[in-house]
Amino acid sequence: MKRKHQNAKTVHHIIPRSRVAGRPLSATCKVPEQIHNLSHALHGNRTPEEIIEWYNETLWGGQYEIIMIRK
Ligand SMILES: [Zn+2]
């Protein structure tokens, strides 16, 4: 059986559902399935702020002070 096209769009919760218990669900966006799977494999249920901080500490040597403001 042929695998579903990996560029098929899937719904991603920007703040993981597991992190918003008891609060309204966060915004979603549509992302290609392959990118979506890779992101969750790498970041699990981290929030956007935690993902950026992970990059800063893991790959950028903590050399950035990051201010992140949601639009
Ligand atoms: Zn997702």
Describe this protein with a few key phrases.
single chain; 71 residues; alpha+beta; two-stranded antiparallel sheet; 2 helices; binds zinc ion
Structure write-up:
This protein is of the alpha+beta class and 71 residues long. It has a domain at 9-45. It contains two helices and two strands, in the order ββαα. The chain has a two-stranded antiparallel sheet. It starts with 8 loop residues before the first strand and ends in a 13-residue tail after the last helix. The mean pLDDT is 89. Zinc ion is lined by residues 12-13, 36, 40. Residues 12-13, 36, 40 line the site of zinc ion.
Write down the overall geometry.
globular
Q: How much of the polypeptide forms β-strand, as a percent range?
A: 5-15%
Distance between the termini: 42 Å
Compute the number of strand runs.
2
Helix share, percent: 25-40%
Q: Would you tell me the structural class of the helices and strands?
A: alpha+beta
Which molecules are bound besides the chains?
zinc ion
Sheet with the most strands, sense and barrel status: 2 strands, antiparallel
- Tell me the strand order in the biggest sheet: 1-2
List SSEs in N-to-C order: EEHH
List the helices and strands and how they pair.
Blueprint: E1 9-13, E2 28-32, H1 33-43, H2 48-58
Antiparallel strand pairs: 1-2
Short structural description:
This protein is α+β, with helices and mostly antiparallel strands and 71 residues long. It has helices at 33-43, 48-58, and strands at 9-13, 28-32. It is 31% helix and 14% strand.
